[in-house]
Amino acid sequence: MKRVLVTGATGYVGGRLVRTLLEKGYKVRVFVRDEKKVAQYSWANSVEIAVGNVTDYELTRRALDEIDIAFYLLHSINSSTKFDQIEKEMAATFGKAAADASIQQIVYLGGIANDSKTSRHLQSRTDTGIELAKYGVPVLEMRAGIIIGSGSASFEMLRHLTHRLPIMTTPKWVKNRTQPIAIRDVLYYLSQSIELPKPVNGIYDIGGPEVVSYEIMMQKFAAIAGLRKRIVIKVPVLTPSLSSLWIGFVTPVPTTLARPLVESLISEVVVDPKKSIDQLIPKPDAGLTPINSAIELALERVSSNQIETRWSDATAQTAPWQKAQGDPSWAGATEFKDVRVQTTVAPIKYVWACIERIGGENGWYGSDWLWYLRGLLDRIFGGVGLRRGRRDPFKLRVGDSLDFWRVEDYEEGKRLRLYAEMILPGKAWLEFTLEESTNEKGRIVKATQVATFQPRGLGGQLYWRAIAPFHWLLFPTMLKNICKTAERESRAA
Question: Which of 67, 233, 324, 451 could form a disulfide with 5 if both were Cys (CB 3.0 to 4.6 A apart)?
Fold first, then answer.
């Protein structure tokens, strides 16, 4: 049995690939930056976990020990404006480490780049494949276009544009052709690569059974979702920059991620028959998934809250001073806290359920307009805003995005700590803890809510003081309403 390493295992494709490989009986090791994020997946106890960053050669080399096939599913599209340089450096480190570890095969998922007009994002995907192959390990590079599946960034972008805009003004690229592929077919090709009789060094395009324009694909979204046909008005003045700003405003996809995606739409992403994966791997027995079926399956998962992995699982871009989360207490950083305490007679499970439902479509238990305003300001300055929402409306796990927060720590029934990924002059956390005790009235629950801010420079200090009045409106109301809701739900049970 071949031993497999999956990088990007907590990402959109990687998280699903791990499950697929385990179902097929493979021994899987995952290479991740944060072990806590892995713990929340259903397959966490079935894999070997290697912790580290692919920018660190020694940790990468150690993760590759005794591995036969390594899946390279990493990108930095949402981490920096210099993502292409970062991706090249990551690929170089991984390629060298793989060669030194005598890996038999690297399988890399890139992007179709057959058009003469190649975006910076697609060029970076191409350069990554070239860099991986420089060190002598055979690289099977599978190139895909838009992946249709619940949680895919491209899928979410097109879905939300279709849902929210009955009349759309679009750039002329909306007429460009694309060959989307269902996520299940991507997973099929990736997993089948392990069964090949010998290592493969080459580039192969993967795509679904249909070639359509982006406009037609959006009309298919609308029809399947039960919406009227969308009116599409093509205008010549919408540049990728303007388009990405507009997408960042009306969809959950932030501008920083929307721009490279939009730039990629300028290229026609259609499988080149000369590079078709059919030469190497036969189609699935049931055939490739048609576009309509792929959209139906994805929308079904969205409506039933069964999204396993999501584009926002990847950590969002933050300022350099925001990246070092969880500084030790002795580090000496200035720290501001807003502490709120509320007691309730509601059983702890009801209080916890209310806390865990916070954000997204569920709202923030009062003064939601202030949260909306803060999210809007964040998006204006290039942040993620509130539109990312939640993966699941009722359950959280470490690593989940929650509006402009990310779940940093989670102990069911005890503690939830959120780390701020909004644009800030510093670092911020929001934490909830629950404790049970007994008094003369019987069993009670003490709920504590702590907002923590570590400012950066004078700007950070001024920021905290400027928003202090809003905290007096937001935080007491939020905790009080959480407890009231828990009491009401416990009485109704």
Answer: 67
Q: pTM for the full model?
A: 0.71
The share of the chain scoring above pLDDT 90, in percent, equals 43
* Element of type H or E holding 63: helix 57-63
CATH no. of 320-492: 3.30.530.20
The values of phi and psi at residue 402, to 5°, are: -140, 95
How far is Cα 446 from Cα 342, in angstroms, rounded to an integer? 6
Identify the three-state secondary structure at position 132: helix
The model's pLDDT over 116-143, given as tens digits with 9 standing for 90+, comes to: 777 777 888 899 999 999 999 999 999 9
Tell me the pLDDT of the chain averaged across its residues: 84
Residues forming CATH 3.40.50.720 domain(s) in the chain? 3-313
Eight-class DSSP state of 269: B
DSSP code string of 190-205: HHHGGG-SS---EEEE
> Degrees (nearest 5) of the Cα angle 389, 393, 397?
85
- The position carrying tokens 């494949």 is 129
Sign of CA dihedral 245, 249, 251, 257: positive
pLDDT for residue 102:
94
- Assign 3-state DSSP to the chain and report helix, strand, coil percentages, each to 5: 45, 20, 35
Nearest one of 406, 399, 402 to 387, comparing CA atoms: 402
Question: What span, in angstroms and rounded, lies between the C-alpha atoms of 179 and 174?
Answer: 14
Give the end-to-end CA distance of the chain in Å, rounded to a whole number.
51
**3-313: CATH superfamily:** NAD(P)-binding Rossmann-like Domain (3.40.50.720)
Distances (CA, A) of 152 to 122, 146, 182, 298: 17, 9, 10, 9
Residue 266 has pLDDT above 90, yes or no: no
* DSSP secondary structure string for all residues of 148-182: ESTT-HHHHHHHHHHHH-SEEEE-GGGGSEE--EE
Report residue 331's pLDDT band, with 50, 70 and 90 as the boundaries.
very low
385: left (phi over 0), alpha (psi -120 to 50) or beta: left
Place of tokens 């324009």: 213
Percent of the chain past pLDDT 70, that is, above it, reads 86
**Number of C-alpha atoms within 13 angstroms, CB side, residue 84?**
11
- Quick one: pLDDT band at residue 357, thresholds 50, 70, 90? very high
Compute the distance between CA of residue 168 and CA of residue 87 in angstroms, rounded to an integer.
Answer: 34
Q: What would the pLDDT profile of 22-70 be if each residue is shown by its tens digit?
A: 999 999 999 998 888 887 788 989 999 999 999 999 999 999 999 999 9
Every domain of the chain with CATH number 3.30.530.20 lies at 320-492
What pLDDT score does 332 carry? Answer: 43
